[in-house]
Amino acid sequence: MGSATRACACSVTVRIRDAGFADIGAVVAIERVSFSEPWSEGMFRAHLRGDINTFLVAHEGEAVIGFAIAHTVVDESELLNIAVDQYMRGRGVGAILLDAICGHCAMRGSASMTLDVRASNTVARALYASHEFVQVGLRRRYYHVPEEDALILRAKLPMSVGRLPISR
Ligand SMILES: CC(C)(COP(=O)(O)OP(=O)(O)OC[C@H]1O[C@@H](n2cnc3c(N)ncnc32)[C@H](O)[C@@H]1OP(=O)(O)O)[C@@H](O)C(=O)NCCC(=O)NCCS
Asked: Which of 15, 59, 120, 128 lies 20 to 30 Å from 164, alpha-carbon distance?
């Protein structure tokens, strides 16, 4: 995939591109302040190597400010991880990343995107609702630290809202 550019609500220009090994340090730093059970550096490296994975980063200039990872099996994709730098949240970066990864997976032939989200994660749930995700299931006590249910959400691809034109 090439890069896609969109002006962000905060007047910065956010660019989206495929992640590379040089991005892992910044991605791990964002991950560690975003989740109570963060992925290890090795997990990110493994996802960069897999053929079925899509691993995108959002950057402003040289600075990586967010990432999203999905994997695709035949015509179904799953969003495995998405996070934005804590100081860049609420400015549209998460929505741009979600648009981009859904668009990329649709171009790979995916008909749907599924994800798990903590029931209490109201910000993420609002983001997903605004991108046509609907609840299709529940995994009781799926998360630990703290223990909590996961909602299973799904959206059909391609979505009708906010899709980025992604050049190849
Ligand atoms: C969830 C996350 C990726 C969203 O990224 P973001 O850049 O802050 O989101 P955006 O600014 O693009 O906002 C997208 C939508 O999220 C919702 N949202 C954003 N900030 C919000 C807030 N403080 N309160 C309520 N809703 C909010 C809104 O619906 C918003 O759409 P709108 O601006 O059209 O109203 C980010 O908050 C994050 O990294 N959180 C920690 C990691 C995480 O929880 N990942 C999701 C795991 S399932």
From this structure: 120
Ligand 1 atom closest to Cα of residue 85: 39
Q: How far is the CA of 40 from the centre of ligand 1 (A)?
A: 23
Q: Are 129 and 110 in contact (CB under 8 A)?
A: no
Tokens describing residue 16: 């989206």
Say which residue the tokens 């950057």 belong to: 59
For residue range 99-137, what is the model confidence (pLDDT) as tens digits? Answer: 999 999 999 999 999 999 999 999 999 999 999 999 999
pLDDT in tens, 68-86: 999 999 999 999 999 999 9
d(CA 142, CA 140): 5
- Best residue among 78, 122, 127, 145 to mutate for probing ligand 1's pocket (most ligand atoms within 8 Å of CB) is 127
Asked whether residue 95 carries a pLDDT value surpassing 80, the answer given is yes
CA 73 / ligand 1 centre spacing (Å): 27
The Å distance, Cα 154 to ligand 1 centre, comes to 17
For the chain, give the mean pLDDT: 90
Residue 38 DSSP class: P
Q: What angle do CA 91, 25, 145 make, to 5 degrees?
A: 75
